[in-house]
Amino acid sequence: MNYFANIRRIVVKVGTSTLTHDTGKLNLRRMDHLVRVLSDVRNRGIEVILVSSGAIGVGVGKLKLPSKPHDIGGRQACAAVGQCELMYIYDKFFGEYGHTTAQVLLTRDCVDDPRRLSNIRNAFDRLLDLGALPIINENDTVATEEIEFGDNDTLSAVVARIVKADALVILTDIDGLHAENPKQNPDAPLIHVVEEVTEDTRRIAGGAGSSRGTGGMYTKIIAAGQATREGITTAIIDGSTPENLYRLLEGEEIGTVFPARGGC
């Protein structure tokens, strides 16, 4: 069954571990592949909204730091430096494929306030009407514990709800949800369809993320549950090969799919 056959608006989330090398510097070849695929999807007539991690990781690399800072000020500084570099590369690559990008930085308080949420929704609608491709990240430069989303998996589900997306696709460094942790058991079977996110699903997904990201499979499962309750079909797929997005849209059994449960 092709859960993505008739979508018109898709949110794609890509994580730090997919965008960067182990050094923390951008994986330019993979970014180029990702942008080419997203541009092609946009050329099909599907509206694309990209939620991109990576600003702090890129900032760490650009500032030549040995590791990600643990203090708030250090992370904010890395985000400020890295966001410039990240958007510069995105704008350059998307421009080469004929698409105009728009940067949108959000914090939790932006979407918790009804008036500001309405303004954000209007901005997204207008950007998409004008043919721009929005690229969203959390505003890590100003975010504090009280106003942060915590991870961009959660942010991607929030954005999908705001823009009334038909689908959310989370690109990560693993091929989906397995019955057991595949790093501990390489033979653990992949679960292709999860009809409902339950306590058992969350238990299976437990574990930490990569050293360069903030989330693990658990945060992706939580995001999938949030999105599907809003009527948004969600998938978690391996982002190391961006062309996997083609396979998903064409109905191939790939990754883990969470069919929409509610109605927008």
Please describe what this structure looks like.
It is built from 10 helices and 7 strands. The protein has 264 residues and is an alpha/beta fold. The protein has a 7-stranded mixed β-sheet, with helices on both faces. The longest helix has 25 residues, at 72-96. The chain is globular, with a radius of gyration of 17 Å. It starts with 8 loop residues before the first strand and ends in a 6-residue tail after the last strand. The model is unreliable at 208-214 (pLDDT under 50).
Strand order of the largest sheet: 3-4-2-1-5-6-7
> pLDDT below 50 for ≥5 consecutive residues: which ranges?
208-214
Outline: globular
Number of helix segments? 10
The secondary-structure class comes to: alpha/beta
Describe what is shown at a glance:
With 264 residues, the chain is of the alpha/beta class. Helix content is 42%, strand content 15%. Strands 3-4-2-1-5-6-7 form a 7-stranded mixed sheet, sandwiched between helices.
Can you give keywords for this protein?
264 residues, alpha/beta, seven-stranded mixed sheet, 10 helices
